[in-house]
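hiii so um. not sure if this is the right channel but i have a protein structure encoded as tokens and i wanna go backwards to a sequence. like what aa goes where. can anyone help
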């Protein structure tokens, strides 16, 4: 920590893991940048250490999914600045800028690391805005809360997975009053900016408006998809979205740490470029209270950061939909079920068309060795728009982006067909299990059947994932066997029912036919007479 206090540029807050395959020379280089770091080991460093050592690091290593999801776009903005991928040196916007940007991207990837001189020069230039507890420009915070938002509250309010106020104790056992290390607090500041809930917060008075009503954060409840390269350098560079994804609002494209001008809570400005898109959107305002020496946060203020909806902007890391907004995180839904939403630029559906994240639009233009190794890291938080949080969601795919439709249209189609086949088999399994339940429980509410149907669907989806990845590995190989898997799960789920009574055996036999492909049988009775006939068969 510097004499001026904790700095996001030089002090430890970003958790990283070193590459395990470092050469002897690379180990020496890593130790010079991050003293004590070892191959495959964990370290905590500032933005400077991340950028200087990125080619020697495997990936980020945060344990809190929402923090990682919020940190990645911010680090991508730093990467854009120090590489020129922010567009500042590409000439005028308009026709040709996309090609010039791709040329620069190719040059950066060929260099294989961030230029140390550019990194150090940028961090020195912006050092005034990187202080976590600076009284005038605290990093990613609003100093006006000191006079506008009342008293400091315990740090448990800041750490979103720690109990605070009347929250249930099952979310953790750390007391809400326990201080938070400054580096950890910084991560949660970013998480609040991305995932803060709507509803009631602290009272804030600004510009004649006094309110405690907050809007939901721009990433709240959403699933985000990030490129993962062969090292952290590639991951950060490839996380910079291409010019087609940049907003073109009026003004200069600046990050919060690059300007003295604070956002207007009554009329937030629209993002006007890639850096403001990745760093400037927040519905909440946060201000930390430092402990003695600045090594810990001992309290915070969190209040509304905008009184109106944020100006529209497309998050470059989400799968967008033609209606209903971007795909939301769902801890009950396996991530592989959306993989074709990344491979196809647009995935048609019966009611909703999805559009892949903009950050993957240039995969086809990457060097072959980079593209073939590229994975996808999915991060989300299953939550509602208000204050209900269910579960963190994360997953990482194998290298699959060689199958984007621009490079492998047949492969992308095969993967999409496999996903649809799995969904159809799951739906048919669900209807068959539900049919057994209804035949044995006539007159009961449909809601009551979930305890019988749900576990079967969960088991099927777990087994279907293995089959799905087999198809991804060899799209032209054997057709997927999802119907066979569904039939096996049905037989396992109903073994107790069919062996207990003749009535149960009859119900299982009637419901199994459509799943087994027996001619002439359907999953649902289409008329009342047939349904009553089936119930009489089971009853007899």
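sure thing!! here u go:
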């Amino acid at each position: 920590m510097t004499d001026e206090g904790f700095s996001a540029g030089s002090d430890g807050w970003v958790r990283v893991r070193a590459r395990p395959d470092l050469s002897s020379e690379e180990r020496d280089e890593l130790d010079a940048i991050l003293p004590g770091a070892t191959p495959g080991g964990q370290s905590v460093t500032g933005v400077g250490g991340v950028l200087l050592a990125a080619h020697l690091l495997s990936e980020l290593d945060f344990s809190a999914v929402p923090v990682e999801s919020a940190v990645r776009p911010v680090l991508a903005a730093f990467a854009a600045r120090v590489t020129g991928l922010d567009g500042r040196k590409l000439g005028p916007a308009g026709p040709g800028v996309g090609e010039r940007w791709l040329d620069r991207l190719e040059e950066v990837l060929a260099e294989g690391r961030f230029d140390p001189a550019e990194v150090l020069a940028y961090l020195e230039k912006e050092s005034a805005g990187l202080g976590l507890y600076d009284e005038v420009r605290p990093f990613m915070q609003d100093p006006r809360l000191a006079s506008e938002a009342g008293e400091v509250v315990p740090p448990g309010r800041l750490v979103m997975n720690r109990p605070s106020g009347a929250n249930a104790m099952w979310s953790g056992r750390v007391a809400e009053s326990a201080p938070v290390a400054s580096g950890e607090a910084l991560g949660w500041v970013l998480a609040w900016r991305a995932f803060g809930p709507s509803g009631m917060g602290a009272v804030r008075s600004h510009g004649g408006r006094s309110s405690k009503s907050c809007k939901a954060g721009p990433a709240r409840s959403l699933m985000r998809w990030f490129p993962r390269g062969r090292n952290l350098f590639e991951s950060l560079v490839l996380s910079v979205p291409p010019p087609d994804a940049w907003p073109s609002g009026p003004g200069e494209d600046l990050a919060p740490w690059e300007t003295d001008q604070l956002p207007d809570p009554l009329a937030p400005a629209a993002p006007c470029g890639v850096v403001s898109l990745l760093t400037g959107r927040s519905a909440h305002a946060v201000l930390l209270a430092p402990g003695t020496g600045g090594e810990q946060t001992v309290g915070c203020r969190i209040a509304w950061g905008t009184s109106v909806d944020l100006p529209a902007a497309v998050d470059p890391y989400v799968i967008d939909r033609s209606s209903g907004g971007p795909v939301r995180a769902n801890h009950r839904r396996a991530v592989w079920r959306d993989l074709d939403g990344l491979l196809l630029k647009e995935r048609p559906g019966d009611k909703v068309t999805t559009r892949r994240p903009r950050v993957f639009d240039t995969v086809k233009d990457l060097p072959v060795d980079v593209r073939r190794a590229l994975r996808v890291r999915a991060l989300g938080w299953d939550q509602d728009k208000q204050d209900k949080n269910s579960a963190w969601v994360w997953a990482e795919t194998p290298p699959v982006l060689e199958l984007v439709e621009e490079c492998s249209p047949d492969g992308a189609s095969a993967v999409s067909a496999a996903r649809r086949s799995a969904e159809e088999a799951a739906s048919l399994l669900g209807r068959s299990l539900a049919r057994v339940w209804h035949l044995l429980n006539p007159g009961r509410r449909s809601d009551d059947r979930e305890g019988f149907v749900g576990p079967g669907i969960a088991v099927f989806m777990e087994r279907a994932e293995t089959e799905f990845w087999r198809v991804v590995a060899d799209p032209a190989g054997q057709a997927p066997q999802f119907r066979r898997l569904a039939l096996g799960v049905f037989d396992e789920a109903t073994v107790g029912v069919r062996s207990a009574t003749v009535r149960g055996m009859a119900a299982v036999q009637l419901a199994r036919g459509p799943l087994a492909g027996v001619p002439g049988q359907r999953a649902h009775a289409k008329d009342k007479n047939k349904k009553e006939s089936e119930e009489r068969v089971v009853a007899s």
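oh and Residues 409-440 form the longest helix (32 residues).
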